[in-house]
Every structure is written in structure tokens, then in C-alpha cells.
Amino acid sequence: MRSGVLEMMSSSSGILSSSSAAAIVALNLKEAKNWWSDVNESPVWQDRIFHILAVLYGIVSVIVVPSRFQLVRIQLRVPEYGWTTQKVFHFLNFLVNGVRALVFVFRRDAQNMQPEVWCLHCVIVI
């Protein structure tokens, strides 16, 4: 829509002055900011974005599942070493990505939690 206005202005006045071209660019930037504000304030968009992130972290966690089998295989082959750095790394990759996926799925519930620690902190501060 803005390009149509730009074409109309350039055809009617011949060549746009640099100040009016700058004003049009600034207006386009302002509209981009308004678009982001609309997306940022929309619960529907937020829910969709967080669900997409949950799915992506879930996929990463599922891809890391074979590394859990790798943990078992390493443990069966060399049980005397215990928990090596490699085993801890594979386990934590699976655990962290799985927890991230769950956090994004239950984001609304997590935001509405009011733990007692915060209430005690408020009482101590007061």
C-alpha cells in the first residue's frame, strides 16, 4: 500500500525531495513497529509462538533419545568408569531440552504461579 502512495507522489511531483522520501521511510519503520506491537500484545500469537518453540524443543529432545541408548551402551561396555563427562553431557542434553519443551507447553500455568517464597520475601521486605 505504501509503495502505491510512493509511486503516486513521485509521478505527481516528478522527483521526491530527500526529506519527503525520508518521511516515507520513517512512516514505514513506524508501521513495522506497530506490527510488532500487535503481535507482541496478542495472546493468540504468543500461544502459537510458544507452542512452536515447544514442538521444536520436543523434536530436539527426541533426536537426543538415541544418545540415551548411547549412555546405556557405554555403561554396559565400560561399567567401571561410572559417570563420565560424555555420559553426563548426553543425559543433560536430553533432560534440558525435554524440560524446555514442557516449560513452553505449560507457560501460562508457570506464569500464574505464586510461590510462597515470593510472599515470604514480600513480608520480610515490608
Automatic annotation (TrEMBL):
InterPro entries registered for this protein in UniProt: THH1/TOM1/TOM3, THH1/TOM1/TOM3_dom
Family of the protein in this entry: Belongs to the plant tobamovirus multiplication TOM1 protein family.
A Pfam family assignment: THH1_TOM1-3_dom
Protein's name according to its UniProt entry: Protein TOM THREE HOMOLOG 1-like
Gene label: LOC104777714
Transmembrane segments annotated in the record for this chain: 48-67, 88-106
Keyword Glycoprotein among UniProt keywords: no
Membrane topology note: Multi-pass membrane protein
Residues of the THH1/TOM1/TOM3 domain: 32-119
Keywords: Membrane, Transmembrane, Transmembrane helix, Vacuole
Subcellular locations according to the entry: Vacuole membrane
